[in-house]
Design goal:
Keywords: Carbohydrate metabolism, Isomerase, Magnesium, Metal-binding, Phosphoprotein. By secondary structure, the protein is of the alpha/beta class. Helix content is about 45%, strand content about 10%. Helix 1 packs across helix 4 and helix 3 crosses helix 4. Bound molecules: 1,6-di-O-phosphono-beta-D-glucopyranose and magnesium ion.
């Protein structure tokens, strides 16, 4: 029987993925790397510093910055990102999410968060949904980032639920891999081809119907 829902944040509960994109794009302009939305797809679910490394590689600049400069660049991106997320209000919750959280609560299903973002708590606060969460895994305590299962396992442990009774929700291919490696049931939200390793894929959060999800899990 299903005991917990574990959510990714960016791209699942709200569309901060777009703000991450804007912040990386601005940093890219400063250091002469032009990124597009297609490249941005490969950064979804990936930690801040690793995203920077991928960007430097993408722009053929992987040998150009010292470790200290890299930390400075990642910090700069984060400062801009923090400015952008100040705009977030409860109106930015993606469609269908509140209904799903309510249904989970009504059915005594625990709710956890497994986001790679170190900004997860302020974002949940701005959205006004933090009260739904029984446990929020701390990305800064997580050694291996997605696609490693660590953050999902940390959430299951915090909820005191066996991973096999958890459903994980993700918009990123690295996140789906993390859920599968944690041996949870994976639900992908987005493009069917990108998320082909998920056990069940929906195009958008609007399609996250509680009964449908439970029936897929029980199959
Ligand atoms: P921060 P998720 C991830 O969040 C984002 O998808 C990814 O683009 C970002 O780089 C990462 O969080 C780290 O975020 O810089 O705020 O610590 O999708 O796992 O909720
Ligand atoms: Mg995400």
């Amino acid at each position: 029987m299903i005991e917990a829902f574990i959510f990714d944040l960016d791209g699942v509960i709200t569309d901060t993925a777009y703000y991450h994109y804007l912040a990386w794009k601005k940093l890219g302009e400063k250091i002469g790397i032009e990124i597009d939305e297609e490249f941005n797809e490969s950064l979804k679910g990936i930690s801040r510093i690793e995203s920077l490394e991928r960007m430097l590689k993408f722009g053929d600049k992987e040998n150009q910055f010292t470790q200290e400069e890299r930390i400075q660049l990642a910090t700069e991106k984060n400062e801009h990102y923090k400015e952008l997320i100040k705009r977030i209000t409860p109106k930015d919750i993606l469609p269908g999410i509140i209904d799903l959280l309510e249904e989970a609560k009504n059915n005594k299903i625990k709710i956890g968060l497994a986001s790679a973002s170190k900004n997860a708590i302020p974002v949940l606060n701005s959205l006004g949904v933090i009260g739904y969460f029984d446990f929020i895994a701390d990305a800064s305590e997580c050694k291996n980032s997605k696609p490693a299962p660590d953050i999902f396992l940390m959430a299951a442990k915090g909820l005191n639920v066996n991973p096999k009774y958890c459903i994980g929700f993700e918009d990123a291919s690295a996140g789906v891999d993390a859920i599968n490696s944690a041996r949870m049931y994976s639900i992908g939200i987005g493009d069917r081809d990108t998320l082909c390793k998920a056990k069940f894929v929906v195009k958008s959060t609007e399609e996250l119907d509680f009964n449908l999800i439970i029936s897929k899990y029980n199959k």
